[in-house]
Task: structure prediction
Amino acid sequence: MLLYLPALVAAFVITLIEMTEVVALVFALSAEHGSIRTGTTGAVAGTAVVAGIALAAGAVLIAFPRDALLWAAAIVLVAFGFFLLRSTLRTYRRLRVASTVPAAPGASSHAVQFAGGFSVGAVETLETVIVLIALAAAGYGASAVIGAVAGGVVLIAAAAVLHEQVRKIKVPVLKVVATALLFSYALFWGGEAAGIAWPGADLILIPMTLGFLLAVRGVVDWRVPAPAVPVGTKG
Result:
């Protein structure tokens, strides 16, 4: 079996880039519960469905209405973004009144978390598969598969290490970052579905996320004012 290095590297890089976004969103979805199990299960399911369709009928997958999938994913992420924003406000409210009573997560949180993970996994896998199918059609199928598998292995190993680091981040901070990420990806995908050609392609997510970080933090400070500091008086 002869390998074509450019095709292998292309498959490796595209898999690493696209699926890194899945990992980032799964971490975001886990902020409410402190566990990545539900979001990961959804992401794996979404990835498996798209990968299964690709294996069964790759040519059909290319013709799949990508815009419809992007719209659906954007709507799901916006919904969970608002859900997580409410949870973030509750967390800061408890923190600022020095309460130690934890609030129970919403009844539908697991379902929304799974749906968000599924959407992310499906969208990013679709992006990856389109490139892999193109490489396979050019006669570099084996190189594309090996490159994609190598990229997946590297990413899984990195995620395992990062997961321990993420768990050390304070929950309020993680929730603010998670909410900003969800809104950023929703805006990005919704814009793509609407035909917007974002400058810098995926790199536009960096300023988007920074902007939403400021916005979310602003909402927190607006809705949950810091407690007044008592002023001491002389006896």
